[in-house]
Amino acid sequence: MFAVVGGAPPQPGWVRSDAPPGGLTSQSFGSSVVHVYQAVGARPGAPLVVLFDGGRWLDLGITTLLDNLTADGLVEPAIVVLVDKIGTAARYRGLTLPRYFEPLLADLIPCVTDGWKVTTDPARTVVAGQSLGGLLATYLARTQPWRFGAVLAQSTSYWWPGQDEPGELCGEAELAAADGPRTRFVLSAGKLERDVLTGNRRMRDALSGEIVYREYQGGHDFACWKGELADGLIALLPG
């Protein structure tokens, strides 16, 4: 039994488990690990979603969510790449230092494009993440707009100072470059997140392209991100 706080995000797709299951395979790229979900009905040219913190999402049952959203016709059948482990780095380094994430993406994207025959249309390619994962998603859409044309960024750490190593991602740099390539954005943040909420409001105001922005009654928590993830996928890849 659980309680739902008023104003908390709804949880579409998480509350049943009777939909036909999609396929799931795991693959290593050196010391990096990813899991690839293929929705029932996904065909050549299917949309692609790259989602960070993939291992945590698998523990939370994301395949059930994806099965349900697809079966209910809310999301187009897609290939979803769940990035679990980025090299040998700790999470915050893997998500913020190019020397860790760039080699993985350089191998991963061509492999998925060839092996699963996913779309090469950036408008149907979503990069998604939470907290620092949202920062990396924003960076990738800004620097590779020919590949990533849609961003689902939740409770993004636009406050991140990026001062540990040269080249490290920095929230202020992403905010300053917000009015760049016309990428579709779905942004959300909790009303209890303080600096995170302030940074997301600043990003919302800086963007001039297509944007969906939501604030929910909650904090920096996967319990909130579950509902926002479902809503974001529905907005970006409607069935």
Automatic annotation (TrEMBL):
Region (Disordered): 1-20
Transmembrane parts of this sequence: none
Alphabetical list of Gene3D superfamilies matching this protein: alpha/beta hydrolase
Pfam families named among the record's database cross-references: Esterase (PF00756)
Recorded superkingdom: Bacteria
UniProt-recorded name of the protein: Esterase
Protein source organism: Kribbella lupini
Taxonomic placement: Bacteria, Bacillati, Actinomycetota, Actinomycetes, Propionibacteriales
